[in-house]
Structures are given as structure tokens and as C-alpha cells.
Amino acid sequence: MTDADVVDTAVLTAWVRHFARLVAEHAEELTALDAAIGDADHGTNMDRGLTAVVAALDGEPPAGAAALLKRVGMTLVSTVGGASGPLYGTAFLRMATAAGDRPALDPAGFAAALRAGLDGVAARGRAEPGDKTLCDAYAPAVDALDEALAAGRPLGEALVAAHAAAERGRDATTPMTARKGRASYLGERSAGHQDPGATSLALMFQAAAAAVR
Amino acid sequence: MKKLVNDPATVVADALRGVAAAHPELRVDHGNRIVYRGDAPVAGKVGLVSGGGSGHEPLHAGFVGPGMLDAACAGEVFTSPVPDQIVAATTAVDGGAGVLHIVKNYTGDVLNFEMAAEIAAAETGVQVAAVVTDDDVAVQDSLYTAGRRGVGVTVLLEKIAGAAAEQGRGLDEVAEVARRVNGNGRSMGLALTSCTVPAAGRPTFQLADDEIEVGIGIHGEPGRHRRPMAPARELAAQLVEPVLADLDFTGGDGVICFLNGMGGTPLIELYLMFAEVRALLDAAGVRVARSLVGPYITSLEMAGCSLTLLRADDELIRLWDAPVRTPALRWGV
């Protein structure tokens, strides 16, 4: 395979670093989306958390995939605050659990870890599809990833497909009426605005596709 | 943006240095951004821990002290504190009788306190109970929302539960009193202006000079609907009517009536509004047993106010009257 078919700590580190860069670049946009239907802090909070994550990854290298993912999750939980801290933190902590004691993941293992992250987020946030949350971008992304891998496509291509699906899911949140989080207080007035959490989640898959390519 | 800040990124840390300087009777953990009562942990007393985003001052740090909270965890502006802080506070105030978490019903606060309670149970063995406040009647359809928001009743609950804990009651009993306060309290707010989160640098939403936002929360999030500005007595009805429509406040031992300022409204206007609210309550047959007027749960510099009514009984009123010694509420001592 020409694509990286081993997701080791180097690939995971590149993924998370790229995610941090993308969030920093889009911080103002994320905060502006949040100002429309939330409380105007999503970009600021995610940027602060991922900056802390990058600093944590600059320290002693983690022993394996799970240790790295756990460090990312714990740092996010400790530094982001708001709802996004526990949600993104839970995603990475569940990925760590799914990774188990393997030093690196194969494509199916990485896909399974990402899905475990989605399940964790949905359970923690009690979110269902269509609630206008980050799950509305996350779920189609892991579905597309599984489908592409099942069709025999290499991981890099599969992640490009997952990223595209995440963006479609993100765009699909615009007409939705929020049923979870602060946006839900607006009722129907939340319709017509793209969900900030789904927007940052699409960046997470964009970063994954870039890191593996 | 014109604000008394050094750097938008250090607002919370800088403000906590001021809290420490002004209140030597409190102890401030600057690393964890926790404000403790000076003598915490109090042996044998249930510890009360609250916290939330900053920008609502005096909530919560202003309510730390004998008769109220043992610790308050400060998050970033309008952002909940993180589990590390809450775990540290929980461990530090446990005097052996367990700890009650007082959480406003916002997704971020609920998730962070939940994770903290799980971690505290697993790592420290401290017994933790939680009460979530959700008194805002502006959120009508709770089946399709994150549920009603926790607003003004949180202040009354922290005072009353604090008094119950100070009397030496057990964790279950303090939690029960707290839930009774939340279950019997209802609130409604309105905003005349938006507010500016320092890190964002511009107002969270735009309101025309002749418009107000009704059903506002405490984070600058837009409310339920906009309407034209009107005289105070008409606006008072906008607060009183939905509260009275949601719960029967007549009869019994009367209500505790709390008219709260959102941060940018002067006391002269709050007292004027309070007179209008009282007239409407009198006309509706609601007896006011106790009153509180002032900015206690604010939204930065937002102009506006909220009304909270608590259907009280003899016991809740006795607990309300019990001594309290905190920066923001202080009586009977």
C-alpha cells in the first residue's frame, strides 16, 4: 500500500497537531458560528485546549497509541471547558480504550477507535442524530470510513471520503432545529445556522485525512 | 470594546487576584481557580461546591463563606469549569459528611460536574450528591431542548442549602432541601442590551435601541422573542405573567421574591421594577414573605433583569433568615 496502513504514534501526533492548526486558523469562524446560536466561545475554547494538547505532545513521547490518545483526551477535558471539553475529551478517551495495548493501529483498528469515540460522545451528550450537534458530522464520517475500508480502499482515501461525509453532515446541520446544548434554547430560531460543534468535528476528519495521506 | 482589563486572556485570573486581595477571610487557589471559605474543610459539615462560567459575579465566588458555599470553581467567561477543578474542590471541602454539587442546567456545566463526580468517586471515595437547577420558564419545550436553564433560583438555593448544611444536616437531607428549592422556584428574565465576552471583543448579539429580548439566559444567548421597548410596568408583566402561569404561588407561607440585575442596570431601575412586580403580585394574590433586590447572578455588562419567585414554607424561610457571611450576602452575623 502506498498509504500509511499503520496508524502509529507518529501518525496520531501529526493528526492531532494538524487538527490544532486547523482549529487555530478557523477559531474566529467557530466563535462566530457559536455567537449566532450559542455563547460565542467555541473557537476560543477549542483553540485553548488544542494548544495545550500540542504542548503536552511536545513532552515525553507516549508509549503507544492508547497512551497518546489518553493524553489528548485528558488534556482536552482539563483545558477546554464548556460542553466541548467533556465531549471531545470523551471521544479521545474512548479511542484510547478501543486502541487497547496495541502500539499502533491498522486501518480497521483506527476506524473502530473513531467509532468508539462517536459512541462515547453520543452517550455523554445524550445526543441523537438530527439534534444539531457534532454527532451529525461524526456519524456520517465514520459510516463513510467503514464503507470505504470495506470496499478495499486504502486508509488515506477512506479518510478523504470520511472528511467529505463529515462536511456534508456539517452542512446538513444548517436547517436543523437544535435539540441539545445551548442552541436548543432558541427553538426554531436555531434553524438556518450551521452547528459550530459539527464544524470543528469536520476539521478533525480533515486533519486525519491530511495526516495519513 | 472598552473594558477594565489588562488582557482578555487573563481576565479570570486577574479578577481572582482581586477577590483574594479584598477578602482575606477566603482562600483562593489561583492554580485551580477555586475560591474556598477560609476554614474549609469544616469537620462533620456537608461541603457545598458550586461553580460555573465566570461573568456572573457575584455568583459563585461571592457566595462562599459560612452559611453558604464552601468552594466555588471559576471557569473561563461563560464557560464551565473543568473536572480537575471540581475534583480538587470536592476533595478539599469534604469534612467527612460528603459533598453536594450545585450545578446550573447548562450542557457544559452538567457534563463537567458529571465527569468530576465520576472521577471523585473513583479516585477519592468522597460521597458526592448533585442538584441541578432548572428554573427558567423562558425555555418552554423541555422535551426538545437541553431542558430549562438554571438561573436566579441558584442564588436562593445556595443560601438555603448552605444554611441547612451549617446546621449539621446530612448529605441526603441537604440535597433534599436543595431539590425542594429548585422544584418550587421559577424565573424569567429580559435584556435591554447584549454583552461582550472579553475574548470575543464584540457584543454576542445585536439589539436595536428600541428593542428588548425577552426570555434571556445569563450567557448572552438570545432569548425567546424580541419586542419593542415599553414602560417598566409593561415589562414587569412580561416577567410576572409567565412565572405565575407556570406554578401556583398563591397561598402557603408566601414567596421569596428575588429581582435580579443582569449587571448593567442600576439599582434605581431595579427598585422601580421591583415596585411594579410587587403591585402585580399583590393583585394576583401572591404574598411576598421575603425580598431580595440587586445584581446577584449577572451576565457581564448586560442591562436588564430577571425575576425569581420561590414558593416557600416555614422551614425554607427559617433557612433563608439564618446567618450568612459571604462577600455578596451577609446578614444575621
TrEMBL record, chain A:
- What NCBIfam families does the record point to? dha_L_ycgS
The GO terms this record gives for MF are: glycerone kinase activity
Q: Which PROSITE patterns match?
A: DHAL (PS51480)
DhaL domain location is 10-210
User: What is the protein name given in its UniProt record?
Assistant: Dihydroxyacetone kinase subunit L
UniProtKB keywords: Kinase, Transferase
Specify the domain of life of the species encoding this protein.
Answer: Bacteria
Q: Its GO CC terms? A: cytosol
Keyword Transferase applies: yes
Q: Which organism is it from?
A: Spirilliplanes yamanashiensis
Q: Name one GO biological process term.
A: glycerol catabolic process
Which Pfam families does this entry report, sorted A to Z?
Dak2
From TrEMBL, chain B:
Q: Where is the DhaK domain?
A: 7-331
Sorted UniProt keywords: Glycerol metabolism, Kinase, Transferase
Q: Does the keyword Transferase apply?
A: yes
Which is a Gene Ontology cellular component entry for this protein? Answer: cytosol
Q: Give a yes or no for keyword Transferase in this entry.
A: yes
Which species is the source of this protein? Spirilliplanes yamanashiensis
Name the catalysed reactions: dihydroxyacetone + phosphoenolpyruvate = dihydroxyacetone phosphate + pyruvate
Q: Return the Pfam families for the record.
A: Dak1
* Pathway(s) of this molecule: Polyol metabolism; glycerol degradation
GO molecular-function terms, A-Z: glycerone kinase activity; phosphoenolpyruvate-glycerone phosphotransferase activity
Please give the name of this protein. Answer: phosphoenolpyruvate--glycerone phosphotransferase
| Subunit structure, as described in the record | Homodimer. The dihydroxyacetone kinase complex is composed of a homodimer of DhaM, a homodimer of DhaK and the subunit DhaL.
Q: Which GO terms describe its biological process?
A: glycerol catabolic process
The EC number(s) this enzyme carries? 2.7.1.121
